[in-house]
Amino acid sequence: MKGVALVTGAGRGLGPILATFLAGQGHKIVITARTFTELHDVAQSLESTGVTVVAIPGDITDPVHRTRLLQQTRAIGGLSLLVNNASDLGEIPRPELALASLQRFRLTLETNLVAPIALIQESLPQLEQSRGLVVNISSDASQGGYEHWGIYGSSKAALDLASKTLAAELKPRHISVVSVDPGDMRTRMHQDAFPGEDISDRPLPEVTLPFWAWLVSQNPERITGMRYHAQGTLWEIPA
Amino acid sequence: MMSTPEDDTHHAFTDLPWLLEPGDLLVVNESATLPASLSATCRIGKIRLNLSTRFADDLWLAEPRWSPSRPGPLPLDLNEILQIGDAKAILLQQYPGIPRLWFTHFDTPASVLMAKHGEPIHYSYAPAYPMSDYQTLFSHFPGSAEMPSAARPITPHVRDTLRERGIGIVGVILHTGVSSLEIEDDTVEQQALYPEIFRVPEATANAVNATHARGGRVIAVGTTVVRALETAWTPNGVRACSGATGLYIHPGTTVNVIDGLLTGLHDPVTSHLAMLSAIAGLGRVKRAYAEAIRNKYLWHEFGDSHLLWRQIAN
């Protein structure tokens, strides 16, 4: 009944939580992450739900890896939900933009901006077939202008704009695109962003489950082009 | 009972049209109540599954209980399978911050299960009445787990009298989830609130804004209506709006839209009561509730009504 979901960055943090939730609802799942051991553990836990799970470790900036992922989604029924969740924080500690390594910046852009768009481009035939939904994971850093957040923030700001543009461009093909700011969560990435700080006051990524339950239950074409705050108080369906 | 900044006065519900002024506007919740309580069996025996919040026909937030009068917690596992008639439901995850509620996935549309096996959700303080007793004159759109009950005493006669007096009635939709009164947290600040599906139609937004422009008052019929209207508020007035709202109105929240609230009497330490305090101030709510207790008012959805005016008149 349910379609095929591809979740990137599924090794830790938000990714496995979302993949597990989707699997529980009967989605077939393709997951990927760079760290083999983490991905393997997530895949084992997902398989216990009885759904089809394909786990392929690799880097989404690698075109060969992307091709493999999308061959798998096609093989198990065709992609209907693409969650571009894998993200690169960039240099740690986070530098000022004026002093940042441009070479490292390019790598962040490759992971956070170019690779998600590449995955969308390459999965268009499958998404068109399924009238599918693309979810690009964003961040409040994309709008904040916070000091030391320029690298990550600008990559996510660009991804937000890409989401909105793609939503407009792909509407005639019934492919929908939304951007989701999950909010602060107690994840490894968040800890990396605040090295040495106590982040135990941040909620676990499970805090976003109500939002995902809501989002995947919507008609994608009614919400395309929206940007949501998963921990916000209003998830609106535009008129 | 009607509470103003000055005092609390006692009235029959049929006095309502004369407690309001021509030009005032009542906003009612047009959500109808579902037979959302299902009997289920599972590893630990026979239990009750109260459906709370619909995400999709096969995905709900639901509360497993021992029985209508006996809440959990139940010793349930992740991915626990529940049998409901011939259908199966699986408990996927607990709601973050509200562990008694589970995201529940059904292999059969829950609407089918409710039609076949459902009965109204009820608690220890009242028996299960026929389903029709859980609807109001304005129950047009099925979706609520528990009756949005504030409009229940509005009979056709009261409605017609209101209209003849020049008091408007318009609707919003907000599908209520379970309240499960007996296991609320100790303080309102601790309470996690789950979102509810709502819609403020264009015509209602316009009517609210026109009422305020004329100097009339907007009276929410029920706390659900407050939640919907305040969610739809902007500095330029109320706008048409739909989706899911998690807005929690508690002391310290500014109430922007409504001038009055017609509601029932709520248990202490509920989110409803927190909202009342945001509207009228804690002191005035305490005064009114002491008065209600002295006069043996009846609580809950089949009880008495309370018209509360806002703390600061605009």
Please render the helix and strand layout as text.
The complex is a heterodimer of chains A (239) and B (314).
Chain A: E1 4-8, H1 14-24, E2 28-32, H2 36-47, E3 53-55, H3 63-75, E4 79-84, H4 102-130, E5 133-137, H5 141-144, H6 150-170, E6 176-181, H7 188-193, H8 209-215, H9 220-223, E7 227-229, E8 234-236
Parallel strand pairs in A: 1-2, 1-4, 2-3, 4-5, 5-6, 6-7
Helix pairs in contact in A: 3-4, 4-6
Chain B: E1 2-3, E2 8-9, H1 16-19, E3 25-29, E4 31-33, E5 37-42, E6 45-56, E7 59-65, E8 80-84, E9 87-95, E10 98-106, H2 110-117, E11 141-144, H3 156-164, E12 168-174, E13 196-200, H4 202-213, E14 218-221, H5 223-231, E15 233-234, E16 237-238, E17 241-245, E18 260-263, H6 271-280, H7 282-294, E19 306-309
Parallel strand pairs in B: 1-19, 3-12, 3-14, 4-11, 14-18
Antiparallel strand pairs in B: 1-2, 5-6, 6-7, 7-10, 8-9, 9-10, 12-13, 13-17, 15-16, 18-19
Short description:
With 239 residues, chain A is α/β, with parallel strands linked by helices. Chain A is built from 9 helices and 8 strands.
Residues in β-strands, percent of chain A: 15-25%
Give the tally of β-strands of chain B. Answer: 19
CATH architecture annotation name of the largest domain in chain B = 3-Layer(aba) Sandwich
- Assign a percent range to the helix content of chain B: 10-25%
- Written as H for each helix and E for each strand, in order along the chain, the element string of chain A is EHEHEHEHEHHEHHHEE
Quote the CATH topology of the largest domain in chain B: QueA-like
CATH architecture title of chain A: 3-Layer(aba) Sandwich
Q: Averaging pLDDT over every residue of chain A, what do you get?
A: 96
> What is the level 1 CATH name of chain A?
Alpha Beta
- The quaternary organization reads as heterodimer
Count, helices of chain B: 7
> Roughly how many Å apart are the termini of chain A?
29 Å
Mean pLDDT across residues of chain B: 92
CATH class of the largest domain in chain B: Alpha Beta
Counted up, domains of chain A total 1
Main pleated-sheet profile of chain A: 7 strands, parallel
Strand order of the largest sheet of chain A: 3-2-1-4-5-6-7
Task: Briefly note the CATH topology name of chain A.
Answer: Rossmann fold
Strand order of the largest sheet of chain B: 2-1-19-18-14-3-12-13-17
